[in-house]
Write a structure and sequence with these properties.
- The complex is a heterodimer.
- By secondary structure, chain A is an alpha/beta fold.
- Chain A has a seven-stranded parallel sheet with strand order 3-2-1-4-5-6-7, sandwiched between helices.
- In chain A, helix 4 packs parallel to helix 5.
- The two termini of chain A are 29 Å apart.
- By secondary structure, chain B is of the alpha/beta class.
- In chain B, 36% of the residues lie in helices and 17% in strands.
- Chain B is built from six helices and six strands; from the N terminus they run E-H-E-E-H-E-H-E-H-E-H-H.
- Chain B has a six-stranded parallel sheet, with helices on both faces.
- Chain B is elongated.
- Classes of the chains: A alpha/beta, B alpha/beta.
- At the A-B interface, helix 1 and strand 4 of A face helix 3, helix 4 and helix 6 of B.
Amino acid sequence: MDNAKQPALLLVYGEGGHAEEMRRLLAAISDSLVSRLALVAITEAGAKSIDPRVIRYNVKEVRDKQSGIKVVGLLNSLMSLLRQVVRVFSTNDVRYVLTTGPGLAIPVSLFARFRGVQVLHVETCCRFYSKSLTGKFMELLASEFWVQNKELLDLYPKAKYCGRL
Amino acid sequence: MKKVLVTVGTTPFNSLFQALEDCDIPEDLEVECQIASGSYIPKKFKHFRFADDFEQQLMSADAVISHAGAGTVFKLLELAKPAIVVANLERKDNHQIELARYVSEHGLALGVMQLDELQSSLNRLKSFKPSTYQKSSFFLTEQLNQKIFKACFPESE
């Protein structure tokens, strides 16, 4: 596979449920389409493998679930993320981005949109009554914003309901 | 004896086990705890950290007390397992409250948003019959494929 020439689909996802949701989203893409694409992922280092065909570019977790955001850690994580984003876009012909969060989707999507690449974000299935931090940004950044819970349509008027992955 | 499995997924939830040990557990319930990497070791109940056959453990339990993690909770709903779903507020993000509230409001499980509600949920667990969970599966497959195809192969249009 020559990633420099083959159109690339960039997957952006974090650990845990975000990785599982991306795995299921990827499974919804037809095999015939996937076989024509380079699959590239920017993901948290601790995220499980979702598909052996995916070439991973790992980044540090931006926000620790137990201790939250620490400024120095956040800056380091963002620098690591920026390096990977530049590497991914310079090495691959990224044509479309899929994201399932969490926060690393924001800077990646900002870069992608700046480069004229469309982004489809699927919001987490864990939210019903309030916007996630990622959701607040992604509803503005993403070309398409899909929600898995109907309750979120009241909060994100421009979103599409897609059912649960 | 009815087997009750307590599970917290991969994230520690020490306060759940501490609260559980302070509760009056009905005598005919046998409690077993999956504690992940938590530092609190239950004194009154059998425990383990992780299990290779976790799916089997879920299936064989008569009831489950679970953290409000989406993966486990939706699995329990699909199995129609009587369950208490407890929001893990030890995490910095408290979005688990939303899932606990959702299952509670829809009669799908007994939701515990604060640990002082645990005892009353335990008292109700034996007689609790969950509502049928109707999963609305992902249905925008065609749109997803079309958008990717159109973006990746614009020359095909």
